[in-house]
Amino acid sequence: MKKLLITGGAGFIGSNFIRYVYRYHPEIRIIVLDKLTYAGNYKNLAALLGDRVELVVGDISDQPLVDKLVERSEAIVHFAAESHNDNSLSNPWPFIQTNIIGTYTLIQAATKYHKRFHHISTDEVYGDLPLSGSNEKFTPISPYQPSSPYSASKASSDMLVRAWIRSFGLQATISNCSNNYGPYQHIEKFIPRQITNILSGRRPKLYGSGSNIRDWIHVNDHSAAIWDILTKGKIGETYLIGANGEMSNKAVLEMILKLMKQPQNAYDIVKDRPGHDLRYAIDASKIRDELGWQPLYTDFQSGLQETINWYMDHQDWWQMDKNKVEMTYARNNQ
Ligand code: NAD
Ligand code: TDX
Q1: What is the DSSP letter of 142?
Q2: Which residues are catalytic, by number?
Q3: Which of 225, 217, 246 is nearest to 294 (CA)?
Q4: Ligand 2, from 125, 189, 257, 282: best to mutate by most atoms within 8 Å of Cβ?
Q5: What is the dihedral of CA 47, 181, 12, 73, to 10 degrees?
């Protein structure tokens, strides 16, 4: 496998995966297909573009373009998506178009040209777990119970991939990962929003009681897991990726406040997210036992400190979006 087509490679996780491949697998050439939506940033890739990395600006739902690029590649790693739950609640249509129709377009082409396909998905397809009274975690056989338009569109795309594997022999794997954090994450998301709120003189915003639990993983560990699945994973299988990083939103926010030397109560409680999932938790024993993957970022506090440092050192990367993102949240009382 020498030539990869990477969709959504100008976004947070896709660009991290490209940096990972660029650094550790110099024999690989990459074509990036990215629409450069509000979430895609040319700057995330600029330093890598050249002989080894080519950027094609376009839509994953554009069948002729997708056919041409899939034919030129040996394998496809599919990150491109509308990825923010809050946006899916105010305007679901782009989620249906990109996450469902876009994935359909890609798997049709991968089937037609007999190409290896890896589909990037999320733990949110499994819905949520109770906040207390159970140590239950998601496993690859947990039932699909998505709560938001975003997670329903991701669940739909997973189902399409599963059906294409079974009915058309698509050579595919799927991974469902928990919440990622790290550099280059869009400032609409929880952790970078709070860091950049503090850096720009705004107060952090916590939805509801802050007791909701997310299972955090550093984005570098996610990229390493994807590489292992792509190169060692069994066709037709689903792998769950997580790093035992469960924490309540309030605890994460208090850690950010402490690391940024702010008072512990220097934040606002704002309107909760409708349908807000309570708790996510991943049982990653399958990828650990079968592929030997394990996370390297096991100390959340130091990963968070590095992430804070990155946003402090890269204000030009996020400053121009900040007012617009906060105005959108303010219109929603968040
Ligand atoms: P992101 O929003 O940062 O990036 C998405 C990228 O896709 C952007 O570069 C955007 O321009 C591109 N894109 C959007 N629509 C497109 C289209 N129609 N055609 C071509 N490109 C398009 O998202 P992310 O956080 O990097 O997430 C990447 C993938 O990982 C998604 O599939 C998401 O569901 C999944 N995922 C994310 C997380 C997380 O915590 N962020 C966790 C698990 C899974
Ligand atoms: O300002 C905020 N305050 C707040 O309390 C924001 C933006 C979020 N939250 C809460 C909502 C969630 O419980 O923080 C938690 C994390 O929120 P998000 O960053 O929006 O992530 P989440 O909804 O959990 O989804 C993320 O993980 C799974 C990614 O955005 C998805 O793409 C991925 O599939």
Answers
A1: S
A2: 123-124, 150
A3: 225
A4: 189
A5: 90
Q: Is 214 near ligand 2, meaning CB less than 6 Å away?
A: yes
Residue that has been written with the tokens 């204000």 in this structure: 315
Q: Say if pTM beats, i.e. exceeds, 0.85.
A: yes
Cα 7–187–93 angle (5° rounding)?
55
Cα–ligand 2 centroid distance for 156 (angstroms): 20
Confidence of residue 133 (pLDDT cuts 50, 70, 90): confident
Residue ranges of domains in the chain, CATH in brackets: 3-181+216-241 (3.40.50.720)
Whole-number Å distance, alpha carbon 189 to ligand 2 midpoint, is: 6
Predicted local confidence at residue 329, as pLDDT:
98
Read off the pLDDT of each residue in 145-158 and give the average, rounded to a whole number.
98
Spacing, Cα 120 to ligand 1 middle (Å): 9
Angle among Cα 40, 79, 36 to the nearest 5 degrees reads: 20
- Residue 117 pLDDT level (bands cut at 50, 70, 90): very high
185 CB near ligand 2 (under 6 Å): no
What is the 184 CA–ligand 2 centroid distance (Å)?
Answer: 15
Ligand 1 atom at minimum distance from 13 CA: 26
pLDDT in tens, 215-274: 999 999 999 999 999 999 999 999 999 999 999 999 999 999 999 999 999 999 999 999
Mean pLDDT across 68-87: 98
Nearest to residue 81, comparing CAs of 53, 54, 62, 103? 103
Helix (H, G, I), strand (E, B) or coil at 3: strand
Residues in the chain, how many? 334
Token reading at 86: 């809050």
pLDDT beyond 90 at 1 = no
| 241 neighbors 34 (Cβ within 8 angstroms) | no
* Distance from the Cα of residue 71 to its chain's centroid: 26
Cβ of residue 148 lying under 6 Å from some atom of ligand 2: no
As given in the structure block, the two tokens for residue 95 are: 């989620």
